[in-house]
Amino acid sequence: MKKLLASLALGLSLGFGLLGAGSLALAQTAPAAAAPAAEAKAPAAAPAAAPAPAAAAEAAPAEAAAVPVPNKGDTGWMMLSTLLVLMMAVPGLALFYGGLVRSKNMLSVLMQVMVTFSLILVLWFIYGYSFAFTEGNAFIGGTDRLFMKGIWDNAAGTFANAATFSKGVYIPEVVFAAFQATFAGITCALIVGAFAERVKFSAVLAFMVLWFTFSYLPIAHMVWFWMGPDAYASKEVVDEMTSKAGLLWQWGALDFAGGTVVHINAAVAGLVGAFMIGKRVGYGRESMAPHSLTLTMVGAALLWVGWFGFNAGSALEANGFAALAFINTMMATAAAVIAWCLGEALMRGKASMLGAASGAVAGLVAITPAAGNVGIGGGVIIGFIAGFACLWGVNGLKKLLGADDSLDVFGVHGVGGILGALLTGVFNSPALGGPSAVGDWVTVSMVTADAYSIAAQVWIQAKAVLLTIVWSGVVSVAAYKIVDMTIGLRVSEEEEREGLDISSHGESAYHG
């Protein structure tokens, strides 16, 4: 335990030391089509010159009237979406993963998911939200919201506002912060599936502190942070406002709800872990079949329901784009289930419950970056392709890589996330039924079908994917190495054979 506490302290000190360093220089690019999934400080939070004392009293009523009032419907929808994403992690992901491992490791997986999620929520409050969603540089945010300071405005006697994607429309920033906290938590929890059944509990938590700090937060900032639509008040400030956004936002990368930030990011971390930690004892020689496909199916169903908050909630408003993301989350997932079952029937002569559940997750992953960015037809096609692609990912690709990715994190989340990110660039096109992207935030006008280039957008998407893979890969190697040198990553062979439920937690999921 002392080693665990020391490692957690090391991770936190490194996070504050490095992420709090000075801004990095970068070449600014021209404004690009925007990606719908971000937050920005409300313009009212920007510094302003104080009025002269005589004018202050006269200006006060006008200023008070000018403070934007959050829309209650949007606020209610975002609070519900936050609860749905929480349900995705605990119990959804926990049960999905738990059913896939052997019975002697059931509780260890539930613990790793639940405690990882809880740990990240606390870190999000301390520094995560600030470094992800405040102005800093193109790679990382600043310290304006450490410990959530400023969320409550004492002077105004109200909560600070967060921008949505419509001019003049806001939600309370505290609601946005809570919503994004669940994204961070489930992203880290996803990694657990890649090295399940063989890793020290303390090592899991120490790794999560480091990876969350140096991989999740920068990627989230690069993809999702911008200054908000109201900051684009005139054409004269466009370049300045865009230069303050995250790097991938500046590029014009489209990621509606987390194809890069969540799925590719976590999948690469999981794959690196599977390689560095090594294969389970008896892997390839002993049966390691799932102990409860019933629980796995229940977990997959909870994930599907919760994913509506994940995807539709990323619109930040209860509007047409939320509805588009909602129906795409239904249709793409259903298409992927059918595709996976069809693929299994062609390969093995019969479809399986495990395959249907895996297909559902594959469809959910692939539609995540595209949910509000593609038409319904495009969503169905993405889901159908994802079912076949991820089936190959957990069979053919897994054998090619040779890693013991216990619960196929890379095969589903990596392959599905990459596929979805790239196809977003294709089906976002108005010519293929997509809604296109905002080309001018001053007038909030969309890129026309004639001006939209599928090749150009797919290239931007590919660059975003590659940057995420490299960034997460490098951070993951360093984080695993640090944990291995301080705590040690793996339990002993005797403890692994006994099962982590007993050896790590002193309890058993089943009796008798």
From TrEMBL:
Boundaries of every Ammonium transporter AmtB-like domain copy: 77-510
Primary residence: membrane
Sorted UniProt keywords: Ammonia transport, Membrane, Signal, Transmembrane, Transmembrane helix, Transport
Membrane topology term: Multi-pass membrane protein
SUPFAM superfamilies cross-referenced by the UniProt entry: Ammonium transporter (SSF111352)
Compartment annotation: Cell membrane; Membrane
The keyword Ribosomal protein appears for this protein: no
Alphabetical list of InterPro entries matching this protein: Ammonium/urea_transptr (IPR029020), Ammonium_transpt (IPR001905), Ammonium_transpt_CS (IPR018047), NH4_transpt_AmtB-like_dom (IPR024041)
Gene3D superfamilies named among the record's database cross-references: Ammonium transporter AmtB like domains
Protein name: Ammonium transporter
Gene label: amt
